[in-house]
Request: fold
Amino acid sequence: MSKPDVTVVVAVYNTMPYLTECLDSLVGQSIGRERLQVVAVDDGSTDDSGKELDRFAQLYPDVFTVVHQPNSGGPAAPSNRALELATGRFVYFIGSDDHLGEEALERMVSCADANESDVVIGKMVGTNGRYVHQKLYTGNRDVTLDDPELPFTLANTKLFRRELIEKHGLRFPEDMPVGSDQPFTIEACVRARKISVLSDYTCYYAVKRGDASNITYRANHLARLRCVQRIMEHTAALIPAGPRRDAVFKRHFDWELTKLLQKDFPALDADTRRQVCEGVGVLVDAYFTDGLRDGTGAKRRVRFGLARSGAVEELTRAVAEETAHGAPPFLLEGGRAFATYPGFRDPAVGLDDCWYEVLGETVAGRLSAGTRLESADWDQHGTELNFVVTLRAGITGDTSSAVVALAQGAMPQSADKAGARKLPANAPRPQCVGTLTADAAADGGTLLTARIPLAATRSKRGVRLYVDVAGSTYEVPVRTEGQPMPLARRWGSDEPHRVAASTNTKGRLVVTTAPLREPKSGVGARLRRTLSRSKRK
Reply:
């Protein structure tokens, strides 16, 4: 066999029946079998994966090299074994449960040759519910680790120039059950002369198995923590402290470390929770710079800070309470806003306010989650009807900026999905009409009671809270959550009107007013009078 253009490495462990589609996608590549080598290493499979590899090797002996070895516990060892047998100018790694688009290898090799790229990243999508970060694939372009999107795409499912791999002795750490591809990929990207992205063709289809048995989904908290520690230590040895390292580590704080402190954390045994906190705290101390801290949302930042302080019980409570009840209220104070998670201003915890401060991130959805209707009623005075609404807002402290008002029309669809929106800086801010009183709720938040006069017009308006948080004004629809609505009312004698409060399809409070009698002029009125007279005759 002549020297192939590309060697595809397949590390295999119990991936039937997905393996068949993977291998079919390789032999069907448009690059042609004469330019292709497949090295597949069976890492002690106990299903029919080994037999399937042998079947393909018999069908395509000039393409396939198959190795069988005892199980090593992860994909690193079989990948390293395959690299020893690779002869292609380029090496491409594929998960044995995934598959390629028909033109994937041809397009990526052509891109590498045309651009003299050492690494080519073909567009990857997820199937069967597999999540794949997509922000990197905005066009065919060259990138570096300084680009914020690349660190979120660190799997080894890329085309690498084999000369680069051998020159720097790149191999996978075999003592890492998960994440072993990241040290390899990060170092390759650091060493590469050029990294190119191919976005105009879907090269790779990443599959989540029906039983979620991918190794990434099976590793426990402590195993994942140890692997993240190894990855970050390896990266720190390659990239000096500064913005470039921060750009890579943002991924690990936002993704891998965050996943260790999610809703399953409180269910861990006490010793495991303590060890996770200690390990996360070490990484926070070593690598969570002020820039990373200020660029991280309050929810994640507080959890990292509590772990760093060894406040295991406060961290457990913060996760459990947010899972059960949503985000805690914001404390508005002197133009600043703080998320009042457990440990806030607790001397025993010792975390500075900056860990809890809200800097504009994720405010809209969290304000919406904390704002709901408590009660509503009508208060009639002569010909004027006041709408009295008491709502619980996800804020405490200085509520002088709060306004409860009726807003005309629906919110923009894009903003409505999050439940609230930040108003543009130049947008007109509703003024307070009627009266507003604020009282602290016994179990957190603020009870805002607004008395809003209703005009004798035909209108349908949503009840909204407008509040200033961290220097911006937010418009928050009021959720009803099954709260009973007051009965419809009639008011006015000269021009009687009807008013009703209801819940719209999104579970939000809407007030509708309409005249009970039609105007005395107009075609419709004249027609009704004519019909009425004809009936009397």
Summary: The radius of gyration is 31 Å. Residues 213-217, 412-418 have pLDDT under 50 and may be disordered.
